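Action item from last week, closing it out:
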Amino acid sequence: MKKLFLKLIRLYQNTLSPDHGLFSFLYSEGFCRFIPTCSEYTYNSIEKYGSLKGIIIGFYRINRCHPWAKGGFDPVPSKDKLNKFLIQGLLLIFLYLFIIIIIIIISSFVYNNYNHLTF
């Protein structure tokens, strides 16, 4: 699994990534706010901690990348800080899953109650 995820990240970097891919010449100063880029960070975290932990850490990093983020140098966490990153990453994943479930419940309620209406 680890090799598959690493190859998928390299495929993304070589094709779609604005920092590493085909169109990287459009962003001469780089597109990412952080060093290393989010894809490189996730690649390094998967290499260092394995597939599951690496993906959770990478997911947490991608969620920290937004227009108001400070950015800068942000290496993969050391083993003593690993639990903090894993807990925060898992909390974000559960939050997103909760939001998706709520949206599904609301949309099914709306669909079932307003199905008979035609426009």
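Closing note: The chain has a mean pLDDT of 88.
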